[in-house]
UniProtKB/TrEMBL annotation:
It comes from Papilio machaon. It is a multi-pass membrane protein. This is Transmembrane protein 267. It is found in: Membrane. It comes from the Eukaryota.
Length: 152
């Protein structure tokens, strides 16, 4: 929510929809618990020995980087915004999980669990940092209009 309070040039309605999207995506990351457990039983889901693919931070970093590269190739600002919304959704979820189990950075393995104070610091600072980076690196595409009358 803090990301969308920063002046990033969105209407109030767009901010609301983006917050809802990030909330849903952040929650949908846990679908991999059902996939890994191959069950809908709570007992099976909570007693997993390994994490699912959506809890791999490397997977989301690569996806985000691909979207940002795609943005600069196609010059589509909506994809740029989508990349940052995905970044916010998975980073908040993964940092929350890393408080207990660490981050999973394939192929390097898992980090140790995050210190409680570092976890609170990251959850507090990252949305503002991402908002700053969003504005700072936001591509500005100029629409060039050619006046063909002056050419003839």
């Amino acid at each position: 929510m803090l990301f969308f309070t920063y002046d990033i040039g969105l209407t109030t309605q767009a901010r609301f929809y983006n917050v809802v999207f990030c909330t849903i995506l952040s929650s949908l990351i846990d679908i991999d618990h059902f996939i890994a457990a191959r069950s809908f039983k709570l007992k099976d889901i909570t007693n997993l020995k390994q994490r699912g693919i959506f809890h791999c931070t490397t997977f989301w970093l690569i996806l985000t980087l691909l979207l940002l590269v795609y943005t600069h190739i196609t010059k589509r600002l909506n994809i740029y915004t989508l990349a940052y919304m995905i970044l916010i959704a998975y980073s908040s979820h993964h940092i929350r999980d890393a408080n207990r189990r660490g981050l999973w950075l394939y192929p390097f393995g898992h980090t140790s669990p995050l210190n409680k104070y570092f976890y609170i610091f990251l959850i507090s600072v990252l949305p503002k940092l991402f908002a700053y980076l969003y504005v700072y690196f936001k591509p500005s595409y100029k629409n060039i209009v050619i006046n063909y009358d002056s050419i003839i």
